[in-house]
């Protein structure tokens, strides 16, 4: 179930749209997948090691708090939490968009919004019933969503045109160097790997976490990476880049080339299942990610309240309410461009916790007294993870970095508010 959570959270709506975005760069973007996969595996190894040393709920928050202190730990939880609920709004919109192929009335903005909100609250209810129930649903949807991706990745090569790889190698406009083109492609492909740390978040709800979490993290990342590279490379060799650039459903069109009209329906159904399973996994995490911070009095205490299934129910409901509010805001066509900026901010919000965690790992390692060969290997992995995260952050662009700084600053008054109440409570306890 934990492996399904990792792979399922990564394989969402992004993979079904990325080939069209990467076609703007050219087939050189296949190297972006390779670099991003390497970076993701380094991050996965780092999270796997930290999960063995610090098996606590909260994942990146717990690790950063141990290595860098309470304030940066809070910022990690805050940014990661924003990433999740903003990302959930994007995933459910994609889910309804794919579903509108079979139910055309869902293309109406208001009806689509109501349907999206209904899906959010249905999965919120599922997750309120307990981690095991949500985990089983995640396992089933992950298996189903891998089928269309692997079908394209395996059978698509029979319809490939090798000449497309060389003809549309680097078609960036204005022309960019190969390194810059790969870097821009890596910024896009990284969105598909967000979630590789998912297994570390509900650590205290996992049996034998020191063994289960590392295995699930590595295996889940490898499964997702294999599916990404196989399917994306096949599609980019099946259709010329100028055609692929304007495709709104590249996987569905590839399915039609391979299997005929029924193939398009099968792949579209796979996209729906993919979004549904991905959304379920992220809703599971949206309550868990700030649970540790709330229990440490670094987040409003209401986020630490659990129901009889040991689920942080209040936090889960509040976060789903924020997703609902964001969905209402996106009904207006005038907010579409703003919403796209918010999605890019969600990517940056995820990269910051990764960078903080890598630095925290380096700090934690320097405290170790017994420094064997394994110490050097761990240190190299942590440094590489920090460098990769920094490179990916820079790749998001100047405008997103500007808004990202404002987002970080917004965490300061919230931290001050939470710690102020904690100080008052501790003072009252001492008086009593």
**Strand tally, please?**
0
Structural class determined from secondary elements: mainly alpha
The main sheet comes to: none
What is the CA-atom radius of gyration, in angstroms? 21 Å
How far apart the termini lie comes to 46 Å
Second-tier CATH architecture: Up-down Bundle
Q: Secondary-structure element sequence? A: HHHHHHHHHHHHHHHHHH
CATH topology: Amino acid/polyamine transporter I
Beta percentage is under 5%
- Report the CATH C-level class: Mainly Alpha
The CATH homologous superfamily is termed Amino acid/polyamine transporter I
What integer is the average pLDDT?
A: 81
Q: Which consecutive residue ranges, at least 5 long each, have pLDDT under 50? A: 334-339
In which range does the helix fraction lie?
Answer: over 70%
- Tell the overall outline: globular
Please summarize what this structure is.
The protein is 74% helix and 0% strand. The chain has 432 residues and is mainly α.
Key phrases:
mainly alpha; 74% helix; 432 residues; Amino acid/polyamine transporter I
Please explain how this structure is put together.
The chain is mainly α. The protein has one domain (2-431): Amino acid/polyamine transporter I, CATH 1.20.1740. It is built from 18 helices and no strands. It has helices at 2-10, 18-22, 29-53, 60-68, 70-99, 109-128, 131-155, 163-167, 178-189, 209-238, 241-244, 250-259, 261-288, 291-295, 313-329, 336-366, 373-394, 398-431. Helix 1 packs across helix 7 (131-155) and helix 5 runs antiparallel to helix 16 (336-366). The longest helix has 34 residues, at 398-431. It is globular, with a radius of gyration of 21 Å. It starts with a helix and ends with a helix.
